[in-house]
Design goal:
Distance between the termini: 41 Å
Radius of gyration: 26 Å
Helix content: 40-55%
Strand content: 15-25%
Low-confidence stretches: 214-219
Structural class: alpha/beta
Largest sheet: 4 strands, parallel
Amino acid sequence: MPFELYNTQTNQREPVRPADATRVTFYSCGPTVYDDAHIGNFRSFLAADLLRRWLESPLCELDFDGEISRGPRTVIHVMNITDVGHMTDDDNADGAGEDKMEAAQRRLTDAKKSGKLPAGVEIDPTDQLAIARFYTDRFMQDARKLGLKVALEADSDPSLMPRATDNVEGMIALIQRLIDQGAAYQAGDAVYFSVESYPAYGVISGNTIDDIRAGAGGRISDDDQQSKRHPADFLLWKRDPRHAMRWESPWGEGYPGWHLECSVMALDRLDPQSSGTIDLHSGGEDNIFPHHECENAQSCCATGAERFARHWFHPRFLMVEGDKMSKSKGNFLTARDLFAKGHEPAAVRLELIKTHYRSNANFTEQGLKDAERLVNRWRAFIDKATDQSGGDEAARTHATQAFAKSMNDDLNIAGALGALNAWIGDTPRPTADDAKLMRTFDDVLGVLTLERPKQADTGIAIFTGGLEPDDRVVQMLEERRAAKKAKDFAEADRIRDELTEMGYAIKDAPEGKVEVGRV
């Protein structure tokens, strides 16, 4: 069956129909680089990456007026980097509170004064652009490790991951265009978008204009609030000569509103024909309102297009061990936290994509271990494949059809993984053709090509999965080896059980060594 995907704007599954059957334009809201991206952020980014990989797959079929278009096809994927204008209260259309980059500056300045900057961190906390570059670099490192294709491609084409601060000129031009069309106006120290100029405002989120509260919280003064034409009008430009990052504009020296940047960068990079509409737009479900609602309104008013994106894609939130992720609860995890603990990128990626994007996912330590075992099973399948072609062609066909049917069914990843694992279980002696199909599946999953963690060999034990040798563990393994040599198997078993309780799994290896992993 052709690919169908849930569209947030219409609240239903719809066939994916890009303007061009061979070229898909796709924009994803990326990170605000005021801190390291957490695994909830990466869940959204990797869900978009999975969607992009499926569209590129030769197994993906699209329906164009009864004609089936088969992949592979080109996907032009753009993801922004927000380094100005995103406020701490982003549930508010005006964005109350302080700029997140200013918040990062204050946090890092305090950390430097108290000597709490992480070891090895070289950063000038007084320079917001330096902070943005620092966290952008760290995000890119993590994203590449996790196989985010847009981050890998941006190495050779930086325009695929544009920065907000590099596109302020385009934002100013878009504001002027909206003013000229009567869709925006200046009031006091700010320029606002007039929601009443776009009767369809609320079409994505379901909010009505009357239900939306006015902005509050310090960025917009009471006088400015009162000068708005409608309480729901949202900010496009704020005059503020004290803001650390500011630009000259016809409305005074200041900075742009958060929602503005994505309209400018998406249309600039993905809309060469100036149609005003791109094929796909993604972001976490917290972006639905106000961010994407505002993006859609200002973009449609500026271009005259009926819709900004043909399809809106919003993965849901991620919990950790059953709770909402929170620093106060101690369950706030970044990708680099997990890498530092020895978890390999392939397992982290699989754990983050294996739950359907429209379900709240629960990230657990046990789930991560299960993902690691599954990755190793897939690797072993390819490793033991013979050089000979052939094998069970009917089984491969069935697995291919089942995998594609699930992925075409609103990215039913659980069904796809089920089909894949069932086929592997029924193929004890894989051939070269089986290995080729496994790689075709993995082109969609994006797991097996990721860098494997190095193994540390102490001469006594091989620490796998990125685990660092621990002196106490090495000593216990020495004692276990001595006990086995003395045929004191009870003592050897006791030491093994103690290591298991400490979270280590040990397996005897060739040459008298022991492999040490996680339980």
